[in-house]
UniProtKB/TrEMBL annotation:
Pfam families: Acetyltransf_3, NUDIX_4
Keywords tagged on the record: Acyltransferase, DNA damage, DNA repair, DNA replication, Hydrolase, Magnesium, Metal-binding, Mutator protein, Transferase
UniProt name for this protein: 8-oxo-dGTP diphosphatase
Single annotated GO MF: acyltransferase activity
EC numbers: 3.6.1.55
Amino acid sequence: MSGENGCWSAGSVWRGAPLLSARLKLRPLVAADAPRLAELANDWEVVQYTANIPHPYGLDDGHAFVVAQEARRLTGLGVALGLERTIDGALIGCIGFGLDHADSPELGYWLGHPYWGQGYVSEALRRLIRHLFADLGYESLWAAVHPDNQVSAHVLEKVGFTPAGRHPCGMPARGDSVDSPKFALAADQWRAAHAARPMLLVAAAALIDTDGRVLMASRPPGKSMSGLWEFPGGKIHPGETPEMALVRELAEELGLDVGESCLAPLAFASHDYDTFHLLMPLYAVRQWKGEPQPREGQMLKWVRAAALSGLPMPPADIPLVALLREWL
Ligand SMILES: Nc1nc2c([nH]c(=O)n2[C@@H]2O[C@H](COP(=O)(O)OP(=O)(O)OP(=O)(O)O)[C@@H](O)[C@H]2O)c(=O)[nH]1
Protein backbone atom coordinates (compact mmCIF):
# COMPACT_ATOMS: atom_id res chain seq x y z
CA MET A 1 0.00 0.00 0.00
CA SER A 2 1.29 3.46 -0.80
CA GLY A 3 2.43 5.64 2.08
CA GLU A 4 0.53 8.54 0.51
CA ASN A 5 -2.87 7.09 1.28
CA GLY A 6 -5.43 6.51 3.99
CA CYS A 7 -4.19 6.21 7.56
CA TRP A 8 -0.54 6.37 6.44
CA SER A 9 -0.61 10.12 6.03
CA ALA A 10 -2.15 12.81 8.23
CA GLY A 11 -4.58 15.20 6.57
CA SER A 12 -2.74 18.28 5.38
CA VAL A 13 -3.80 21.90 5.82
CA TRP A 14 -2.69 22.37 2.20
CA ARG A 15 -5.64 20.15 1.29
CA GLY A 16 -8.06 21.88 3.65
CA ALA A 17 -7.86 19.40 6.56
CA PRO A 18 -8.73 20.95 9.93
CA LEU A 19 -6.47 20.64 13.00
CA LEU A 20 -7.91 20.08 16.49
CA SER A 21 -6.32 21.42 19.66
CA ALA A 22 -7.67 21.20 23.20
CA ARG A 23 -10.19 24.04 22.77
CA LEU A 24 -9.96 25.00 19.10
CA LYS A 25 -10.54 23.81 15.58
CA LEU A 26 -8.06 25.37 13.12
CA ARG A 27 -9.95 25.25 9.83
CA PRO A 28 -10.04 26.83 6.38
CA LEU A 29 -11.92 30.12 6.15
CA VAL A 30 -15.19 30.14 4.20
CA ALA A 31 -17.27 32.96 2.67
CA ALA A 32 -19.72 32.81 5.60
CA ASP A 33 -16.85 33.92 7.92
CA ALA A 34 -16.58 37.36 6.28
CA PRO A 35 -19.01 39.20 8.63
CA ARG A 36 -17.30 37.79 11.70
CA LEU A 37 -13.84 38.64 10.32
CA ALA A 38 -15.08 42.20 9.77
CA GLU A 39 -16.46 42.37 13.31
CA LEU A 40 -13.23 41.16 14.95
CA ALA A 41 -10.64 42.82 12.70
CA ASN A 42 -12.25 46.26 12.66
CA ASP A 43 -10.37 47.08 15.85
CA TRP A 44 -7.24 49.22 15.85
CA GLU A 45 -5.79 47.43 18.87
CA VAL A 46 -6.07 44.11 17.03
CA VAL A 47 -4.54 45.25 13.74
CA GLN A 48 -2.09 48.02 14.67
CA TYR A 49 0.96 45.72 14.55
CA THR A 50 -0.12 43.73 11.48
CA ALA A 51 1.36 44.39 8.06
CA ASN A 52 -1.56 43.69 5.75
CA ILE A 53 -4.87 44.13 7.59
CA PRO A 54 -6.52 47.43 6.54
CA HIS A 55 -8.12 49.80 9.04
CA PRO A 56 -11.02 50.40 9.14
CA TYR A 57 -11.97 46.87 8.09
CA GLY A 58 -15.34 46.12 6.50
CA LEU A 59 -17.36 43.24 5.10
CA ASP A 60 -15.73 43.59 1.66
CA ASP A 61 -12.31 43.27 3.27
CA GLY A 62 -13.47 40.08 4.99
CA HIS A 63 -14.72 38.62 1.69
CA ALA A 64 -11.55 39.65 -0.15
CA PHE A 65 -9.39 38.05 2.55
CA VAL A 66 -11.22 34.71 2.34
CA VAL A 67 -10.93 34.63 -1.47
CA ALA A 68 -7.26 35.68 -1.45
CA GLN A 69 -6.33 33.08 1.17
CA GLU A 70 -8.05 30.29 -0.75
CA ALA A 71 -6.04 31.28 -3.83
CA ARG A 72 -2.81 31.30 -1.81
CA ARG A 73 -3.55 27.82 -0.48
CA LEU A 74 -4.31 26.45 -3.94
CA THR A 75 -1.14 27.94 -5.43
CA GLY A 76 1.08 26.72 -2.57
CA LEU A 77 1.94 30.20 -1.25
CA GLY A 78 0.49 29.81 2.20
CA VAL A 79 -2.41 28.73 4.36
CA ALA A 80 -4.69 30.81 6.60
CA LEU A 81 -6.86 29.05 9.15
CA GLY A 82 -9.75 30.37 11.19
CA LEU A 83 -9.62 29.69 14.93
CA GLU A 84 -13.00 28.21 15.85
CA ARG A 85 -13.77 27.60 19.51
CA THR A 86 -15.07 24.10 20.19
CA ILE A 87 -17.30 25.21 23.04
CA ASP A 88 -19.52 27.53 20.97
CA GLY A 89 -18.33 27.32 17.36
CA ALA A 90 -17.31 31.02 17.44
CA LEU A 91 -14.57 32.23 15.10
CA ILE A 92 -12.14 34.14 17.35
CA GLY A 93 -9.12 34.88 15.14
CA CYS A 94 -6.77 33.58 12.47
CA ILE A 95 -3.43 31.81 12.24
CA GLY A 96 -1.43 30.82 9.22
CA PHE A 97 1.88 30.56 7.43
CA GLY A 98 3.34 31.82 4.20
CA LEU A 99 6.24 30.85 1.98
CA ASP A 100 6.63 34.30 0.38
CA HIS A 101 10.11 35.09 1.70
CA ALA A 102 11.73 31.66 2.02
CA ASP A 103 11.29 27.90 1.79
CA SER A 104 10.69 27.84 5.49
CA PRO A 105 7.20 28.87 6.64
CA GLU A 106 6.69 32.28 8.22
CA LEU A 107 3.97 32.18 10.86
CA GLY A 108 1.40 34.90 11.50
CA TYR A 109 -1.69 35.25 13.67
CA TRP A 110 -4.21 37.64 15.19
CA LEU A 111 -6.92 37.24 17.79
CA GLY A 112 -10.17 39.17 18.43
CA HIS A 113 -9.91 41.46 21.46
CA PRO A 114 -12.45 39.66 23.72
CA TYR A 115 -10.32 36.52 23.52
CA TRP A 116 -6.95 37.95 24.57
CA GLY A 117 -5.16 36.64 27.65
CA GLN A 118 -6.70 33.14 27.62
CA GLY A 119 -3.90 31.18 25.97
CA TYR A 120 -5.65 30.73 22.61
CA VAL A 121 -2.74 31.96 20.47
CA SER A 122 -0.15 29.75 22.14
CA GLU A 123 -2.54 26.77 21.90
CA ALA A 124 -3.12 27.38 18.18
CA LEU A 125 0.58 27.99 17.55
CA ARG A 126 1.56 24.74 19.26
CA ARG A 127 -0.94 22.79 17.18
CA LEU A 128 0.12 24.38 13.88
CA ILE A 129 3.82 23.99 14.70
CA ARG A 130 3.31 20.28 15.36
CA HIS A 131 1.53 19.88 12.03
CA LEU A 132 4.26 21.72 10.13
CA PHE A 133 7.08 19.69 11.68
CA ALA A 134 5.54 16.26 12.38
CA ASP A 135 3.12 15.93 9.43
CA LEU A 136 4.49 18.22 6.71
CA GLY A 137 8.21 17.73 7.37
CA TYR A 138 9.44 21.35 7.40
CA GLU A 139 12.84 21.77 9.03
CA SER A 140 12.45 25.27 10.45
CA LEU A 141 9.87 27.99 11.06
CA TRP A 142 10.15 31.71 11.65
CA ALA A 143 8.10 34.75 12.56
CA ALA A 144 8.72 38.49 12.70
CA VAL A 145 6.93 40.73 15.18
CA HIS A 146 6.44 44.48 15.22
CA PRO A 147 9.15 46.06 17.43
CA ASP A 148 6.46 47.38 19.83
CA ASN A 149 4.55 44.09 20.05
CA GLN A 150 6.10 42.58 23.15
CA VAL A 151 3.09 40.36 23.87
CA SER A 152 3.54 38.58 20.55
CA ALA A 153 7.28 38.18 21.09
CA HIS A 154 6.55 36.65 24.50
CA VAL A 155 4.02 34.17 23.03
CA LEU A 156 6.56 33.03 20.43
CA GLU A 157 9.18 32.44 23.12
CA LYS A 158 6.62 30.59 25.25
CA VAL A 159 6.04 28.05 22.46
CA GLY A 160 9.77 27.52 21.85
CA PHE A 161 10.93 30.18 19.37
CA THR A 162 14.23 31.97 20.03
CA PRO A 163 15.48 35.37 18.79
CA ALA A 164 17.12 35.16 15.33
CA GLY A 165 18.19 38.68 14.36
CA ARG A 166 16.07 41.22 12.50
CA HIS A 167 13.83 41.17 9.43
CA PRO A 168 12.93 44.26 7.40
CA CYS A 169 9.13 44.19 7.32
CA GLY A 170 7.06 46.07 4.78
CA MET A 171 3.72 47.10 6.30
CA PRO A 172 1.61 48.04 3.25
CA ALA A 173 -1.59 48.46 5.26
CA ARG A 174 0.14 51.05 7.49
CA GLY A 175 2.13 52.77 4.72
CA ASP A 176 5.23 52.01 6.74
CA SER A 177 8.08 49.57 7.11
CA VAL A 178 9.85 48.46 10.26
CA ASP A 179 12.97 46.60 11.29
CA SER A 180 11.32 43.69 13.11
CA PRO A 181 12.76 41.29 15.66
CA LYS A 182 12.82 37.85 14.06
CA PHE A 183 12.25 34.55 15.89
CA ALA A 184 13.01 31.02 14.68
CA LEU A 185 12.34 27.43 15.69
CA ALA A 186 14.16 24.37 14.26
CA ALA A 187 12.52 20.95 13.95
CA ASP A 188 15.20 19.31 16.14
CA GLN A 189 14.60 21.78 18.96
CA TRP A 190 10.86 21.20 18.71
CA ARG A 191 11.25 17.38 18.60
CA ALA A 192 13.37 17.38 21.77
CA ALA A 193 10.84 19.52 23.66
CA HIS A 194 7.88 17.54 22.32
CA ALA A 195 9.44 14.19 23.31
CA ALA A 196 9.87 15.46 26.87
CA ARG A 197 6.19 16.21 27.47
CA PRO A 198 4.55 14.02 30.14
CA MET A 199 2.28 11.04 29.65
CA LEU A 200 -0.97 11.56 31.58
CA LEU A 201 -2.88 8.49 32.71
CA VAL A 202 -6.60 9.05 33.22
CA ALA A 203 -9.45 6.56 33.77
CA ALA A 204 -12.97 7.39 32.55
CA ALA A 205 -16.42 5.82 32.62
CA ALA A 206 -19.34 5.63 30.22
CA LEU A 207 -22.17 5.22 32.73
CA ILE A 208 -25.09 3.76 30.78
CA ASP A 209 -28.65 3.84 32.12
CA THR A 210 -31.47 1.40 31.39
CA ASP A 211 -32.59 3.56 28.41
CA GLY A 212 -29.12 3.26 26.86
CA ARG A 213 -28.24 6.89 27.61
CA VAL A 214 -24.70 7.90 28.62
CA LEU A 215 -23.86 10.25 31.50
CA MET A 216 -21.72 13.17 30.38
CA ALA A 217 -20.16 15.80 32.66
CA SER A 218 -19.09 19.33 31.80
CA ARG A 219 -15.54 20.21 32.84
CA PRO A 220 -15.86 22.61 35.78
CA PRO A 221 -14.94 26.31 35.59
CA GLY A 222 -11.27 26.89 36.31
CA LYS A 223 -10.11 23.52 34.92
CA SER A 224 -8.47 23.13 31.52
CA MET A 225 -11.02 22.85 28.67
CA SER A 226 -13.71 24.10 31.05
CA GLY A 227 -17.26 23.73 29.70
CA LEU A 228 -16.45 20.85 27.32
CA TRP A 229 -18.41 17.62 27.89
CA GLU A 230 -16.43 14.57 28.99
CA PHE A 231 -16.78 11.12 30.45
CA PRO A 232 -16.62 11.25 34.27
CA GLY A 233 -13.25 10.16 35.65
CA GLY A 234 -9.85 11.58 36.43
CA LYS A 235 -6.13 11.11 36.82
CA ILE A 236 -4.72 7.81 38.03
CA HIS A 237 -2.68 8.51 41.16
CA PRO A 238 0.66 6.78 41.87
CA GLY A 239 0.04 3.29 43.23
CA GLU A 240 -3.50 3.07 41.81
CA THR A 241 -4.76 0.75 39.09
CA PRO A 242 -7.09 2.40 36.54
CA GLU A 243 -10.01 0.60 38.19
CA MET A 244 -9.10 1.86 41.68
CA ALA A 245 -8.76 5.39 40.32
CA LEU A 246 -12.14 5.24 38.61
CA VAL A 247 -13.95 3.88 41.67
CA ARG A 248 -12.43 6.75 43.70
CA GLU A 249 -13.22 9.41 41.06
CA LEU A 250 -16.84 8.28 40.64
CA ALA A 251 -17.31 8.52 44.41
CA GLU A 252 -15.61 11.94 44.65
CA GLU A 253 -17.15 13.53 41.56
CA LEU A 254 -20.60 11.96 41.49
CA GLY A 255 -21.18 10.40 44.91
CA LEU A 256 -21.58 6.96 43.31
CA ASP A 257 -20.62 3.64 44.80
CA VAL A 258 -19.27 1.43 41.99
CA GLY A 259 -17.69 -2.00 42.41
CA GLU A 260 -14.49 -2.66 40.46
CA SER A 261 -16.15 -5.74 38.98
CA CYS A 262 -18.82 -3.47 37.42
CA LEU A 263 -16.19 -1.75 35.24
CA ALA A 264 -16.10 -3.35 31.77
CA PRO A 265 -13.16 -2.23 29.59
CA LEU A 266 -14.62 -0.72 26.43
CA ALA A 267 -12.06 1.38 24.55
CA PHE A 268 -9.17 3.74 25.12
CA ALA A 269 -8.05 7.16 23.98
CA SER A 270 -4.41 7.80 23.14
CA HIS A 271 -4.24 11.46 22.25
CA ASP A 272 -1.40 13.86 21.64
CA TYR A 273 -2.30 17.09 23.37
CA ASP A 274 0.42 19.63 22.73
CA THR A 275 1.56 19.84 26.35
CA PHE A 276 1.02 16.17 27.36
CA HIS A 277 0.06 12.81 25.90
CA LEU A 278 -3.20 11.40 27.23
CA LEU A 279 -3.71 7.67 27.71
CA MET A 280 -7.26 7.06 28.92
CA PRO A 281 -9.04 3.71 29.22
CA LEU A 282 -12.82 4.03 29.00
CA TYR A 283 -14.97 1.56 30.94
CA ALA A 284 -18.65 0.81 30.39
CA VAL A 285 -20.60 0.85 33.65
CA ARG A 286 -24.21 -0.29 33.89
CA GLN A 287 -24.58 -0.83 37.63
CA TRP A 288 -23.90 1.51 40.53
CA LYS A 289 -25.38 2.52 43.85
CA GLY A 290 -26.69 6.07 44.35
CA GLU A 291 -27.90 8.91 42.13
CA PRO A 292 -25.20 10.86 40.23
CA GLN A 293 -24.70 14.27 41.86
CA PRO A 294 -22.49 17.05 40.50
CA ARG A 295 -20.10 17.33 43.47
CA GLU A 296 -17.32 19.33 41.80
CA GLY A 297 -19.14 22.24 40.13
CA GLN A 298 -19.76 20.29 36.93
CA MET A 299 -23.05 19.95 35.05
CA LEU A 300 -24.38 16.47 34.29
CA LYS A 301 -26.63 15.20 31.54
CA TRP A 302 -27.84 11.88 30.20
CA VAL A 303 -27.29 11.78 26.45
CA ARG A 304 -28.59 9.38 23.82
CA ALA A 305 -25.90 7.74 21.69
CA ALA A 306 -27.06 9.54 18.53
CA ALA A 307 -26.76 12.94 20.25
CA LEU A 308 -23.28 12.41 21.72
CA SER A 309 -21.41 13.68 18.68
CA GLY A 310 -23.34 16.98 18.89
CA LEU A 311 -21.70 17.86 22.21
CA PRO A 312 -18.57 20.01 22.31
CA MET A 313 -15.91 17.64 23.69
CA PRO A 314 -12.16 17.37 24.25
CA PRO A 315 -10.61 16.13 20.99
CA ALA A 316 -9.43 12.89 22.66
CA ASP A 317 -13.06 11.86 23.13
CA ILE A 318 -14.18 12.13 19.52
CA PRO A 319 -13.00 8.63 18.46
CA LEU A 320 -14.48 7.20 21.68
CA VAL A 321 -17.89 8.60 20.85
CA ALA A 322 -17.82 6.95 17.44
CA LEU A 323 -16.96 3.60 19.07
CA LEU A 324 -19.57 4.01 21.76
CA ARG A 325 -22.30 4.79 19.23
CA GLU A 326 -21.54 1.56 17.38
CA TRP A 327 -21.42 -0.43 20.58
CA LEU A 328 -24.65 0.85 22.20
N1 LIG B 1 -12.17 12.56 33.01
C1 LIG B 1 -11.93 12.80 31.74
N2 LIG B 1 -10.78 13.44 31.38
C2 LIG B 1 -10.59 13.66 30.07
C3 LIG B 1 -11.53 13.23 29.09
N3 LIG B 1 -11.05 13.58 27.85
C4 LIG B 1 -9.88 14.23 28.04
O1 LIG B 1 -9.16 14.70 27.17
N4 LIG B 1 -9.59 14.27 29.39
C5 LIG B 1 -8.41 14.90 29.93
O2 LIG B 1 -7.84 14.12 30.95
C6 LIG B 1 -7.36 14.95 31.99
C7 LIG B 1 -8.11 14.60 33.27
O3 LIG B 1 -7.77 15.48 34.21
P1 LIG B 1 -8.75 16.04 35.31
O4 LIG B 1 -8.27 17.41 35.60
O5 LIG B 1 -10.18 15.88 34.98
O6 LIG B 1 -8.40 15.01 36.43
P2 LIG B 1 -8.75 15.05 37.94
O7 LIG B 1 -10.25 14.94 38.10
O8 LIG B 1 -7.87 14.02 38.56
O9 LIG B 1 -8.40 16.55 38.29
P3 LIG B 1 -7.49 17.30 39.31
O10 LIG B 1 -6.13 16.67 39.27
O11 LIG B 1 -7.49 18.71 38.76
O12 LIG B 1 -8.22 17.17 40.61
C8 LIG B 1 -7.62 16.38 31.58
O13 LIG B 1 -6.50 16.92 30.93
C9 LIG B 1 -8.76 16.21 30.61
O14 LIG B 1 -8.90 17.26 29.76
C10 LIG B 1 -12.70 12.56 29.48
O15 LIG B 1 -13.57 12.18 28.69
N5 LIG B 1 -12.86 12.37 30.83
